[in-house]
Amino acid sequence: MKIYYEDSLPYAAEFFSELGDSRVFSHKDVNAKLVADADVLLVRSTTKVNAQLLDLNQNIAYVGTATAGTNHLDEEYLRSRELGIHSAAGCNAVAVAEYVLSALFVMALEHDWQLVDKTVGIVGAGHVGTRLSAKLTALGIRHLLCDPPLADAGDPRDFVDMSQIMQCDIITLHVPLIKGGRYNTGHMFDAKRLDALKETQLLINACRGEVIDNKALLACFEAGRALNVVLDVWENEPDIDQALVPYIALATAHIAGHTVEGKARGTEMLYQQVCGQFGFTATKKLSDYLPVPQPDRLYVDETLRGQALLSALVLSVYDIRNDSKQFKESIHLPDQFRYIRKNYSIRREFAALSVNTGNNPGSEAIYALGFNRK
Ligand SMILES: NC(=O)c1ccc[n+]([C@@H]2O[C@H](COP(=O)([O-])OP(=O)(O)OC[C@H]3O[C@@H](n4cnc5c(N)ncnc54)[C@H](O)[C@@H]3O)[C@@H](O)[C@H]2O)c1
Ligand SMILES: O=C(O)[C@H](O)[C@H](O)COP(=O)(O)O
Description:
Pfam families: 2-Hacid_dh, 2-Hacid_dh_C, DUF3410. The protein is α/β, with parallel strands linked by helices and 374 residues long.
């Protein structure tokens, strides 16, 4: 069996080499000829999988993406080849939720906000939205969920509509890119919604760039509106509209999901799927490969309490300001969006770190946030 995998899948050699003849490729030079004899094709979001890539291949039996989003796969084409859509749904949900928390704590520091006085509107209550909801609950932050597809499907949680989301102090977007139809998310934040935002609100997009109309957003800023916006994702990546960057409070290069665990879990999920489909027993586990973080233990500053304590802890693991600073200072350089993503020094998830809380009364919130108790 010939297994072709994109070079951005961590631990792919470790997981797949025993299953067959495994070969690595770069998204920059992958083409139809190169993968013409693949039985299994494993990608991340940087490789577009469509007729152009697969029409020369008669044998392909499995195509999988080690990411949550699937909009780089031509679903209609894959279905016409009876291949289906295989993804790593949920692999990086914790990573994105922790990215959002870092953004919230930084914005709170910069604007002197007490987060427990704010209401967060989560749009999209799937893997990411649900993880974020759990962490906000741990922090005692009020939040509302908006997810019409889940509401229509009978999900028992309480949902609100977009008009209620628009009243929230903080709005964070976690929907797939769906172009058209009843649940369209393309330009969900169009000029009209952006005009309705107040300068006291915060809008975060860590799902797909096309969910916010970037031209309309730039027009708001150019008209003098001081909106608070955090963007991890942009329209037309990697060739984003650089004019927008200086206006964005915290700007990053589509790395919200890039924790060691989030990326590697994606590879592990595809390994399990391939084993299932081709009748292999899955013997390998992610825990066999993940490095121990250095350091692996955090100490709580005993003088801090409440938000100050949680903020210090979260930002000691991941401080989004570092990524934003690097992004803003270098994004004008050629091919920089891709460069940052390729060379990103990926971070760890809270669960990889043990916290000794001593007698701190805030301990339960720390563990409920995901930190390890050991
Ligand atoms: N920035 C990153 O690094 C990063 C990482 C992971 C995921 N993502 C993106 O975030 C998206 C969400 O990730 P996920 O793992 O939670 O996916 P998911 O499929 O588990 O959840 C998405 C949710 O959005 C809901 N939804 C669909 N249309 C909607 C609409 N019109 N309004 C409100 N809700 C709607 C769906 O019902 C679903 O529950 C992914 O599709 C991907 O595009 C980005
Ligand atoms: O959809 C996802 O899972 C994320 O957007 C993911 O981080 C993107 O994957 P990448 O571009 O790193 O392959």
